[in-house]
Amino acid sequence: MRHLLDTQHLSRAEAIEILDVAEDMADTQRREVKKLPTLRGKTVVNLFFEDSTRTRISFEAAAKRLSADVINFSAKGSSVSKGESLQDTAQTLQAMGADAVVIRHGASGAPRTLATSGWITAGVVNAGDGTHEHPTQALLDAFTIRKRLFGDDSRGRGLDGIRVTIVGDVLHSRVARSNVWLLHTLGAHVTLVAPPTLVPQDVSGWPIEVDYDLDHAIAAGPDALMMLRIQLERMSAAYFPTEREYSRRYGLDARRLAALPPDSIVMHPGPMNRGLEISAEAADSPRSTVLEQVTNGVSVRMAVLYLLLAGERPHTEKEDLR
């Protein structure tokens, strides 16, 4: 794997390989000593042009547990805030000897520009670009679904026949876009639920169904219900009458939680707006995977960095990881 820029162009075999390596990584994280020597001598740069807590810390933890050197680069207070271009920043990182660059950027397509520009030789991982994609979030979501539903029998498996319903602010959500493509590639059936104003204008080419009624979608019995954060900071217009009205029609409250099938799981990529798209009862219930998603994110990002910087696993190393 040279770069990870999106999930739309990941093959089923590539996606399952990442999930399986993440299983290996998760196994190592249950040991007393969690650190592996695999990427010793490699340098990973976290290049964040947008604020982030979970994703940046998760990538930092993943790189350090693989023994890589980590450089955290925040655009605020840096040369970028003084007008430095992405090209100049990239060439600075190249001069520092970066082996991998994890980039979050407000402009859709910035990671692909970085990867294909010739400015750097490092591998590029997209940690979220505009409203385009967030591939590692989708991978950790798929990993979480697979682990919850199949347990120890999950290695080598896709999500064939699994029904996933994604609810909320799809319009502004790069997480939703990455999940749509990855879940479809893994064989899942995906339904989007949102007010018409929060569904992208043309989703005719997406491998999904659209439902505007959350109660109807819950009655269909999804295996996983993923609630999206309402991204008020990206909204420049009134996409729904009031927050209270949105919560009434599209929020996961105790009543809707009780209406879900007994084995279905509740997901949220975080950070959560409790009381808006998800109630405290739902967020803290035993069927919630919110904290598991955070834990699994480290294992998945370890797998991505491993495959990016160490390539295919030789047989002996695979055995050591397990």
UniProtKB/TrEMBL annotation:
Every Aspartate/ornithine carbamoyltransferase carbamoyl-P binding domain range: 2-146
Similarity comment: family membership: Belongs to the aspartate/ornithine carbamoyltransferase superfamily. ATCase family.
Keyword tags: Pyrimidine biosynthesis, Transferase
Enzyme class: transferase
Segments forming domain Aspartate/ornithine carbamoyltransferase Asp/Orn-binding: 160-308
Annotated positions binding carbamoyl phosphate: R54, T55, R104, H134, Q137, G270, P271
Reaction(s) the record says it catalyses: carbamoyl phosphate + L-aspartate = N-carbamoyl-L-aspartate + phosphate + H(+)
Organism expressing this protein natively: Microbacterium testaceum
Keyword Transferase: yes
A single GO BP: amino acid metabolic process
Record lineage: Bacteria, Bacillati, Actinomycetota, Actinomycetes, Micrococcales
Any one GO cellular component localisation term in the record: cytosol
Descriptive protein name: Aspartate carbamoyltransferase
Listed pathway(s): Pyrimidine metabolism; UMP biosynthesis via de novo pathway; (S)-dihydroorotate from bicarbonate: step 2/3
An example molecular function term from Gene Ontology annotations: amino acid binding
Keyword Cytoplasm attributed: no
Gene3D superfamilies on file: Aspartate/ornithine carbamoyltransferase (3.40.50.1370)
InterPro entries: Asp/Orn_carbamoyltranf_P-bd, Asp/Orn_carbamoylTrfase, Asp/Orn_carbamoylTrfase_sf, Asp_carbamoyltransf, Asp_carbamoyltransf_Asp/Orn-bd
Subunit structure: Heterododecamer (2C3:3R2) of six catalytic PyrB chains organized as two trimers (C3), and six regulatory PyrI chains organized as three dimers (R2).
